[in-house]
Automatic annotation (TrEMBL):
Cleavable signal peptide: 1-19
Chloroplast is among the record's keywords: no
Function: Acts in the modification of cell walls via demethylesterification of cell wall pectin.
Pathway(s) it belongs to: Glycan metabolism; pectin degradation; 2-dehydro-3-deoxy-D-gluconate from pectin: step 1/5
Organism this protein belongs to: Kalanchoe fedtschenkoi (Lavender scallops)
EC annotation from Swiss-Prot or TrEMBL: 3.1.1.11
GO molecular function terms listed in the Swiss-Prot or TrEMBL record: pectinesterase activity
Name assigned to this protein: Pectinesterase
Family: Belongs to the pectinesterase family.
Coiled-coil regions, chain positions: none
The reaction(s) this protein catalyses: [(1->4)-alpha-D-galacturonosyl methyl ester](n) + n H2O = [(1->4)-alpha-D-galacturonosyl](n) + n methanol + n H(+)
Keyword terms, alphabetized: Aspartyl esterase, Cell wall, Cell wall biogenesis/degradation, Glycoprotein, Hydrolase, Secreted, Signal
UniProt domain Pectinesterase catalytic: residue ranges: 95-387
Amino acid sequence: MRYINVCLALAAAVLAVFASTGKFAFPPKHLFTGLLRFAAFTAESDTVLMTDDTSDHNVLQRRKKKPDRKVHNICDDFPPDVPPPNTNTTTYLCVDSHGCCNFTTVQSAVDAVGNYSSNRTVIWINSGFYYEKVIVAKTKPNITFQGQGYMSTAIAWNDTAASANGTFNSGSVQVFATNFIAQNISFMNVAPIPKPGAMDAQAVAVRVSGDEAAFWGCGFFGAQDTLHDDKGRHYFKECFIQGSIDFIFGNGRSLYENCQLISMANPVPLGKRSVDGSVTAQGRVTKDENTGFSFVNCSIGGSGRIWLGRAWRPYSRAVFAFTNMSDIIAPEGWNNFNDPTREQTVFYGEYNCTGSGANMTMRAPFGRRLNDTDVSPFLNTSFIDGDVWLQPLTS
Ligand SMILES: *[C@@H]1O[C@H](CO)[C@@H](O)[C@H](O)[C@H]1NC(C)=O
Ligand SMILES: *[C@@H]1O[C@H](CO)[C@@H](O)[C@H](O)[C@H]1NC(C)=O
Ligand SMILES: *[C@@H]1O[C@H](CO)[C@@H](O)[C@H](O)[C@H]1NC(C)=O
Ligand SMILES: *[C@@H]1O[C@H](CO)[C@@H](O)[C@H](O)[C@H]1NC(C)=O
Ligand SMILES: *[C@@H]1O[C@H](CO)[C@@H](O)[C@H](O)[C@H]1NC(C)=O
Ligand SMILES: *[C@@H]1O[C@H](CO)[C@@H](O)[C@H](O)[C@H]1NC(C)=O
Ligand SMILES: *[C@@H]1O[C@H](CO)[C@@H](O)[C@H](O)[C@H]1NC(C)=O
Ligand SMILES: *[C@@H]1O[C@H](CO)[C@@H](O)[C@H](O)[C@H]1NC(C)=O
Ligand SMILES: *[C@@H]1O[C@H](CO)[C@@H](O)[C@H](O)[C@H]1NC(C)=O
Ligand SMILES: *[C@@H]1O[C@H](CO)[C@@H](O)[C@H](O)[C@H]1NC(C)=O
Ligand SMILES: *[C@@H]1O[C@H](CO)[C@@H](O)[C@H](O)[C@H]1NC(C)=O
Ligand SMILES: *[C@@H]1O[C@H](CO)[C@@H](O)[C@H](O)[C@H]1NC(C)=O
């Protein structure tokens, strides 16, 4: 029964997260519906399958009310061809929260991967909600997390800067290994949304600290500091990224293609000019570092009034190209993090963006309108040396 309660409590926690954002439309709601269904399914199945816990009156009553109910094995629907057979260069491990294959937690599968294996290990993760903190240590390169869709497969935890001894340790999933890949899975931090002015409430969904990481069709759900793009070269394609303040932050060198960036900052009352969020807080410290975030063909929507970026570190670098921006973007676009000297050193650029938020008439003077020459290093995977390491999507 404890397991059921955990699932329901989690679904409730996730509901709280999404409900408090008000008119949050498409993906979270669906993800959330999936989670609720998952929790309900778990509860029902356990009710039927439970035979040893006769002390639980609720269960007995429910059993009596539905005497004709067919008792079926929860694993009957498990796909027969999973996991695929290992090949010479790829090992497959399988995770299912109901125990229908070898591992019930993602971390236990990661732990079973050989140290410093030069072959790839694909961890196939069945639909479901995995409430656990997952660490992919430096000793585990070449791991793939293969989910069943970012709205049906999620790893979530609820640490905050306060509970984890710092924002950097709060990530629900933390990747320190090289050559990490994730496909069709979500990363969530379901800690309560911080009240305005709250201290140490930052709650990271994923921290990516390994070089050469790729995320395809993934979801990132949180509020403040959702995606810690910490260090190394990273690729994000067709991802859904939700947050409020600095929701993509860190000192990585990353290309984001065709991603949806969704703000859940509080709506700003009509007539007020305040800004209550930022898409990025890129952390380039010196001019010699080749780091920065490039967004190509993305879209920005959601609620609140937010900046495209703020200068978390002096040489902060971010570029938005061919990106559609809704009117939630503050007219000035960019922010110096209360340090005017940073206006001389940041690199903030926009190129061929569309939508009412992309109107550059009122932009801060240190936000640049890039020309074809300026923008060309940022437009494709050469920005992250993709030709050296980025593999085409496998399925
Ligand atoms: C990797 O695959 C090769 C080729 O099959 C095999 O010889 C080697 O033992 C594998 N290495 C590991 C660490 O599993
Ligand atoms: C896999 O390894 C076996 C035995 O080492 C070898 O016979 C086979 O040709 C290899 N297959 C591939 C696809 O490399
Ligand atoms: C579970 O592990 C065993 C032993 O490694 C392996 O033979 C089997 O194929 C695995 N089954 C699944 C469903 O992963
Ligand atoms: C990896 O190394 C650690 C310690 O260095 C050890 O505890 C662990 O058992 C190793 N894992 C595997 C799968 O070999
Ligand atoms: C495994 O990781 C090493 C170190 O990052 C890398 O050189 C190698 O190409 C990777 N192998 C595969 C199969 O991805
Ligand atoms: C995380 O959730 C658990 C269970 O609801 C709760 O006991 C714990 O206090 C939460 N942690 C934080 C940091 O909110
Ligand atoms: C918390 O982090 C600080 C550095 O940020 C470190 O000095 C301290 O030892 C950490 N405390 C614990 C309990 O890990
Ligand atoms: C831009 O993104 C949209 C939405 O993800 C996609 O349908 C379209 O194909 C992308 N265009 C290019 C040139 O990649
Ligand atoms: C992008 O905008 C520039 C003007 O800033 C224009 O010259 C160029 O043709 C545009 N390029 C594309 C591919 O739309
Ligand atoms: C851009 O903003 C300026 C000033 O707010 C306004 O005058 C102009 O009409 C806007 N341009 C477009 C294309 O909306
Ligand atoms: C593009 O802008 C840069 C300054 O940002 C300038 O040096 C360069 O001449 C411009 N190139 C073109 C083709 O306009
Ligand atoms: C991911 O999901 C999309 C949409 O459901 C599907 O088209 C694609 O094949 C999946 N890719 C992988 C690698 O799982």
